[in-house]
Amino acid sequence: MRRSDRWTGGRAVGTAVVAVAVLTAGPPVRLSGQDSQFGIRGLGTPGRWESVRSRSAGGAFAPFDPLSPLAEAPLADVGQLTATAAGGTAHRDVLVGGTTTALRTTRFPLMGVAGPVGTRLAVTTGFTTYLDKSWDVTLRDSLLLRGVLQRYTDDVTSDGSVADVRFAAASRLSRRIAIGAGVHVLAGSTRMTAERRFDDSTFHTVQQSAEVRYDGFGVSGSVLIGVAPGLSLAGWARSDSRLRATVADTTSAVTDLPRMAGAGVLFAPSPSARFAASAVWRSWSKAGAGAFDTWSWSAGAEFGSHRMPIRLGARGGQMPFGPGTKAPTEVAGSLGTGRGFAQGRALIDVGLERLERRGGGLTERVWTVLVGLTVRP
């Protein structure tokens, strides 16, 4: 391969990531990534800040759940040291350009420990997923080399995520009011690789790779109000500063992160029936061109005793990133149950979620199996 041809190939591989940003406007592509393809054009796919118990009910109970890292105020009612962790396996069908690709991924998006440290104070620490950034895109195209049209394949991959490490505290000010606040440290990395392979084997394969590290910071606060017996309201807000990306100790990008505000209502007419609903707004358009502000909603119910309840729910809303000029939409339904062991000191929660996302000619349909473990030593 000539020096000029080698330089041309290397330069082209270096711009392959830009091609991903307009993949829906280019030639047919094959997607073979693990996480949602709606995160390719932007910062990634936002994580879900919910325990398996809450997510099985559509996420509606998350503002009232001390083990969901969404709002801090419910921590005030943690009566003893409690540890929780969650995992999920997603089976995803991606439809783009008339081609359907089946993907599968397993994630462990949540872990935390909470407990009281005084009569009116409880604290927690743990982590959850802030952004999923794993995907793999293959593109077919051609270019002129020495006057001959040469076909090639570009394979662009990203493997990694950004975690949200939370430190939070909450206090019950009175029988009706609890408040909480938290600080969030964002940290993570991705391995980015771009490879160009020519159909003509006399041309060398060209590959470039780099490890991108991310850091950021955020603060949050929430309030929980008991309006009447069996009726509670929750409100929460969060502000994240920016996400800084560095390559080899050099800052490559600084992106503004969104503010968030939400509210929820919980109605429990009896110990064996609970209903909840919530709505959330996030200013993702601060992240730059191609990002959208989002609204999302959720509603759910839980029936039966705490020993083995039945949960079901639904949620919907918008995605902050994706192909096209409008925010992609998503809708999901879920159900689940749980079982207590060892006199309630160990709890296993299981859930099943069906999700569909649409936007810009891209459709995702996902089945997710969820498992959560909670231990109270």
Q: Which structural class best describes the helix and strand composition?
A: mainly beta
Distance between the termini: 65 Å
Let me know the average pLDDT: 87
CATH homologous group name: Outer membrane protein transport protein (OMPP1/FadL/TodX)
- CATH architecture label: Beta Barrel
Number of helices: 3
| Biggest beta-sheet profile | 14 strands, antiparallel, barrel
Low-confidence segments, given as residue ranges, are: 1-33
Q: Which percent bin holds the helix content?
A: under 10%
Would you state the CATH class?
Mainly Beta
Radius of gyration: 23 Å
Number of domains: 1
Subunit organisation of the chains: single chain
Please report which band the strand proportion falls in: under 5%, 5-15%, 15-25%, 25-35%, 35-45% or over 45%: over 45%
Strand order of the largest sheet: 3-4-5-7-8-9-10-13-14-15-16-17-18-19
Output the helix-strand order.
HHEEHEEEEEEEEEEEEEEEEE
- State the total count of DSSP E strands: 19
Described by the principal axes of the CA atoms, the overall outline is: elongated
Return the CATH topology: Porin
Plain-language structure description:
With about 375 residues, the chain is mainly β. It has a single domain, classed as Outer membrane protein transport protein (OMPP1/FadL/TodX) (Porin), CATH 2.40.160.60. It is built from three helices and 19 strands. It starts with a helix and ends with a strand.
